[in-house]
Amino acid sequence: MAEYTYMVLRLPRGTTRDVARQVMTEHAEYGGWELHRLRLFPDGSRRIQLRKRIIRQRRTF
Description:
Blueprint: E1 4-11, H1 17-31, E2 34-40, E3 46-53
Antiparallel strand pairs: 1-3, 2-3
Protein name: DUF4177 domain-containing protein
């Protein structure tokens, strides 16, 4: 089973789709994050959950 670490971003009301896309793209390209869940609230704010896979190295003898 894969293990992930999560990061939550909150974008305020009035943030355009283009700005939200740009923020997610920068996190994906430079941080290795991928989109897990995006929620658009009725007031216009967004909550974005990004995840990154945890890679654990195992010892070999």
